[in-house]
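Give me the fold.
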Amino acid sequence: MFAKLFSQSGLSLDRLKALVEVAAAGSIVQAAGSDPARQSQYSRQIKELEDFFQIGLVERHGKGIRLTAGGKELARISRFFLLGLSNFQRGCLAEGQTYRIGGGATFLATFLLPLLAEPARAKSGIRYSVETVREVDIERRLHDLTLDFGIVNRPVLSRPLQLRQLGSWKAVLWVPKTLCRTEKEALCELTAQRLPIGWPQEELPREQFDAYTNYEPSLICGSFLDARAALEQQGLAAVLPDFLAPGKSGGRYWQMPLPGQDSAEFQYRLAWNPRLLRLNPHAARRRDALGGALAKLLSRKS
């Protein structure tokens, strides 16, 4: 069955590992950490794979290179294969696994990190690695299996990724009373596009709101947490989820539904790649435990 595959030299785990690392980093330079010797090694190993498969795996892109479609597919196959071997080795050695979870800064700080830091979970022996990842990158990294789980707002992801609903939230406009004396005045200023707003672009893209596509925020920031910190300075309004009130006295602000989005609900969802479960059946238990606990936590916050 595999006679042709091993009839010539050039294929090895080291070479496949090099391709996977370059694919994950985005370039040979980034994968090699600016080490010229390692850059040369990566280039040579990828060239040897190209000679073996008789296909181009990388192509010029500006001043650097990027993987071709064939390179991306071989990297995906190799990553799946290497992860399977790694999981098998850990099982043979009775080693634990670190589950990698990516999501927006606000969800991680408000829900996930407090959950994972609970004494019972911290003592369970199960390890987690949590990192802030933009939603546009979570889908790609789940496909690449460089994340085990992701937290997204999107209702649909590309196949074969799967989703589990965790909880809903609504966007709320908070306006300091130092800016507007009444809610009516705040609404008029917003309608006239004169209200200074801090907008959390990474976690709530304005492109999702037709009514605010042309609105020019006074401050564009990354997360809801950033927008809340700016709001508390009393110099501008901010759009926040309904579970994230400003830390200072709520009496200092007008709180109102975001006009034009009064009934719109957003959903947090747990996302995963079913290939992960085939590589590591224990991941199904972690998915179910995390999903259930997070859903319960979000229901209490609403």
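The chain has three domains: 13-90, 97-167+267-301, 171-264.
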